[in-house]
Amino acid sequence: MQERLQKVLAGAGIGSRRECENIILEGRVTVDGNRVTTLGTSVDAEKNKIYCDGILIKPECKIYYLLNKPKGYLCTNYDELDRLKAIDIIKNVKQRLYTIGRLDKQSEGLIIITNDGELSNKLSHPKYAVSKTYFVEIDGYLTDETITALQSGIWLSFGKTQPVIIKKMHRGLKKSRFEMVLHEGKNREIRRMLADQGHKVKTLRRIKIGTLSDLNLKVGKYRKLTDEEVKSLYSMTEKNHMEKKHRK
């Protein structure tokens, strides 16, 4: 995968992104035997031979974790208020990690934490149509009219939402429980859709990413993804992409 040279150097622990830019400008980096002194150069860390001060730069080993995020944690790498972050739950890891997609502070559930930028793009980009399944509990009775609106798409400030799937419903006068399946994930989208229909979300929990789930993973706990699970995620994105192209 092509990435900016300074990003590759920073990812290998050479220094901050800004420090790596200065290193390039000083002429201390070669790519396939050619000295690079300009910023903006793209390289493939898996294919190109990159040296800094005569030392071969090796790409980071890719690592993948599945975390059951608790409430109160942010899915970000930096927070100016120094609030709790999901990535800080993962211990004893040298690589720089980030979350794939987000769950808002008050939501919980499954999220992938990794240093694999390619997988992050594939699981997050709408063209790969990766489904996410959520358990939702709301105040009040979930009417047929609201179900129809959710399944058709609702106009919000950013535009019309994509149709969702509603299943496994238990509807009561005071509260309703159900599952929602989405293929996009705009900021607080589920909460905003339901608020538009007059419902406050009491519980929002992501329980599945594509076909990936783990009912035994307790809140606040995490585990490594298996090689088979990672391969399955890649295969799923490619399959979804091809099917989407053929439908056009």
What does this structure look like?
The chain is of the alpha+beta class. The chain has 3 domains: 2-56, Structural Genomics Hypothetical 15.5 Kd Protein In mrcA-pckA Intergenic Region, Chain A (Roll), CATH 3.10.290.10; 64-126 and 213-247, 2-Layer Sandwich (Alpha-Beta Plaits); 131-209, Alpha-L RNA-binding motif (Alpha-Beta Plaits), CATH 3.30.70.1560. Helices cover 25% and strands 29% of the residues. It contains 6 helices and 16 strands. The chain has helices at residues 5-11, 17-25, 117-124, 144-152, 189-196, 227-247, and strands at 2-4, 29-31, 34-36, 42-44, 50-52, 55-56, 64-69, 98-99, 108-114, 132-139, 155-156, 159-160, 165-171, 175-182, 201-209, 222-224. Strand 2 and strand 3 form a beta hairpin. Helix 1 packs across helix 2. The radius of gyration is 21 Å and the shape is elongated. The two termini are 27 Å apart. The relative contact order is 0.14.
Summed up:
The chain contains 6 helices and 16 strands. It is an alpha+beta fold and 248 residues long.
Task: Summarize this structure as a short list of keywords or feature phrases.
248 residues; alpha+beta; Structural Genomics Hypothetical 15.5 Kd Protein In mrcA-pckA Intergenic Region, Chain A; Alpha-Beta Plaits; 3 domains; 8-stranded mixed β-sheet; 6 helices; 16 strands; 29% strand
